[in-house]
Structure formats: C-alpha cells, structure tokens
Amino acid sequence: PRTGGFTGAVTLSVAGLPSGATATFTPNPATGASSALKVTVKIFPRGTFPLTVTGTSGTLTHTASATLIKN
User: Fold this and answer.
1) Given pLDDT bands bounded at 50, 70 and 90, which one contains residue 1?
2) Contact partners, residue 71, CB within 8 Å, separation at least 6
3) Which residues 6+ apart lie within 8 Å of 7 measured at CB?
4) What does the alpha-carbon distance between residue 68 and residue 23 come to, in Å, rounded to a whole number?
5) What is the three-state SS of 21-65?
6) How far apart are CA 37 and CA 28, in angstroms?
7) What span, in angstroms and rounded, lies between the C-alpha atoms of 39 and 27?
8) What is the pLDDT of residues 17-45, one digit of tens each?
9) CB under 8 Å to 43, separation ≥6 — which residues?
10) What is the Rg, in whole angstroms, of the alpha carbon atoms belonging to the chain?
11) Which is nearest to 53 in space by CA: 70, 19, 30, 31?
C-alpha cells in the first residue's frame, strides 16, 4: 500500500548525484506502491555522496535521504 498521503501518480527525482552519475526511476511517475532507482556511473571520484529523493504528486511532496558510496 501507498504511504505519505499519496493517491495519484508520483513523480520521482533525485538530487546530489556527483558529476558523471545519472539516475533513472522505473516506473516514473510511479502509480503503484514502488519504483526502482537505478544509478548509472561513468567516471567520478571516490567518496560518499548524500542524496535526496523527492516524490511529488499535485501539491504533496515528500523527501527521503539516501547515500551513494563509491569505494
């Protein structure tokens, strides 16, 4: 089941990716209870990168934190 009060399709985005990395959500917008995030990495430095994932549907927006680590 959905959480956070979402009832319609939720458009997903991610901020904080380092240069050389891209993100794709499948599906996007999400109409069910889940969506998969795929991060594609070309060349970027080692490190820890804090990410913010945002879901928006109409006027409702929620965010979640995640971390991308490249060793």
Assistant:
1) low
2) 46
3) 57
4) 11
5) EEEEEECCCECCCCCEEEEEECCCCCEEEEEEEEEEECCEEEEEE
6) 10
7) 14
8) 988 889 999 999 999 889 999 998 887 78
9) 20
10) 13
11) 30
